[in-house]
Amino acid sequence: MNTVWMDIAAGRGAVGGGLLVAGLIVVAVLIGAFVLGVRVMRREPRRPRSEEQPHMPDGGPVREVREHREPNEMPRSDERVLPHDMPAHGNSGTRTSPSEDRPRWNEGSSGSFGSGGPGGN
């Protein structure tokens, strides 16, 4: 009976030794990855100093322009006009609208993507 317990203990020792070796391998791989990362960082160009950073323009920060755009008119013709016959090869241009008001749905109209319902009111 004593030999049975010794066999079990020997098996557990082998498993424990295997886990120890696996742990050491994982630690070695992590240290190697760290060393490789340091080498790669040393080869990279240095970071720019504060005086080399971009500065704000003299006129202040650049703001976005909000304007209402409307499409250019379709060219009038008695013949059928295909996209490649149009100016800019079918890419419709736009121009600034004389009215700066944004188009809104009229009260009571279909404002819900054509469902005919009251819309988002």
Number of beta strands: 2
What is the alpha-carbon Rg in Å?
A: 37 Å
> What general form does the structure show?
elongated
Q: Tell me the distance between the termini.
A: 86 Å
Q: How do the strands line up in the largest sheet? A: 1-2
Output the helix-strand order.
HEE
Number of helices: 1
| Mean pLDDT across all amino acids | 76
* Classification by helices and strands: mainly alpha
Q: Helical amount among residues, as a percent range?
A: 25-40%
Q: How would a textbook summarize the main sheet?
A: 2 strands, antiparallel
Query: Which runs of at least 5 residues are low in confidence (pLDDT < 50)?
Result: none
Tell me the β content. under 5%
Q: How are the SSEs ordered, and which strands pair?
A:
Layout: H1 2-43, E1 69-71, E2 94-96
Antiparallel strand pairs: 1-2
Explain what you see.
The protein has 121 residues and is mainly alpha-helical. Helices cover 35% and strands 5% of the residues. It has 1 helix and 2 strands. It has a two-stranded antiparallel sheet. The radius of gyration is 37 Å and the shape is elongated. The model has no long low-confidence stretch (mean pLDDT 76).
